Amino acid sequence: MTDEAALRRGIEDLFAAYVECIDEGRLEEWPDFFVEECRYRITSRADHEAGLPHGVVYAASRGMLLDRITALRQANLLEPHHYRHIVGPIRIRSVANGVAEVAANFFAARIMHDGGTSLFATGRTLDRIAVARAPYRFIERLVILDSHKIDTLLVIPL
Amino acid sequence: MTDEAALRRGIEDLFAAYVECIDEGRLEEWPDFFVEECRYRITSRADHEAGLPHGVVYAASRGMLLDRITALRQANLLEPHHYRHIVGPIRIRSVANGVAEVAANFFAARIMHDGGTSLFATGRTLDRIAVARAPYRFIERLVILDSHKIDTLLVIPL
Amino acid sequence: MTDEAALRRGIEDLFAAYVECIDEGRLEEWPDFFVEECRYRITSRADHEAGLPHGVVYAASRGMLLDRITALRQANLLEPHHYRHIVGPIRIRSVANGVAEVAANFFAARIMHDGGTSLFATGRTLDRIAVARAPYRFIERLVILDSHKIDTLLVIPL
Question: With an 8 Å Cβ cutoff, is C12 touching chain A?
Answer without folding.
Answer: yes
